[in-house]
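SAMPLE LOG
Freezer: B-3
Tube label: C17
Construct: single chain, 347 aa
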Amino acid sequence: MGLYHLGLFFLRRTDRSSLWFALFCFVVLMRIVSTGDQLLSQWLPGFSWELARKLEYLPLNIGSLFFMFFITTLFPREVRRWLLYAFAAVAILFGLAVVVLPAAVSNNLVMPMQIYVVLASIWIVVTILRAVAKRREGAVMVLVGTIVLVATVANDMAYSNQMLDTGYVMPLGFFVLVFFQAFMLAVRFTRSYKKAEFLGAALADTNQALRRFVPYEFLDFLHKKSIVDVKLGDQIQKEMSILFSDIRSFTSLSERLSPKENFNFLNSYLERIGPVIRANGGFIDKYLGDGIMALFPDRIEAALQAAKEMQQKVREYNVHRAKSGYDPISIGIAINVGHLMLGTIGE
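STRUCTURE (predicted):
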């Protein structure tokens, strides 16, 4: 579990909770192999008794410290920072004493260290309870796992002081904590995945909407993947065919229509013309009221064919207009071929 959470941290270093939980797991491992059945001595016969005692005492302080930092990263708004730093300072002092002093001397610090663990456990539980009261995500699962772990740690301290005859059960409490931690991670990942799906769909919709204003082909020619990559002055030089078209006598025609009727009329006309341009390999660079400016990056024949089909669409549109009682329209089309600068101009 320590290696698993360490891997999570290296995959996403902004989330330090995985790092602190990984370190806590390693400290628990240190404690398990040096107490109870003393597996370390069984695996490595002749292992230094002095070093084994240091490995047994260190987790009392360092383990509590790592777990406090783990809780702090999960629920930073519920943490009293000055208390955290005070506990951290005491844990470091105890840890240095265990490392520097002989085991026979540091053995006298076991009772103060156990008192420290009790106080740190109370601080941890109170902090998580505050997170539960404020409905923080995962707080209830962390609380249940922590209470079980604290209870088993209290049992082990009572057993080591011959106050109970139960045996060391902290590994069981740690297993329960790991279970709830894994479940909380699964919930968090599931929510993150759903959020990523939602944001991905929203981004796709946004990109689709942006293409109504900035053609994808325009970005493609500028070698940009997204509109956010475009900067003022970006440009390329290329030979293209430019097609201009507008409606003949549009001014007099529009004066007889209301603003809303003008919009409906233009959209009805443009929705017939736009597909013709795209079908012939062109794209609309901009709308100019009733006019269109379209670019054809390939052969001039593509622009000519588009112009012929546009006139055909207008004839079909006039049949529709006649049935609705409207006057027919006609359009003028001009095509120019040559080198141009395609880019962004403005402020």
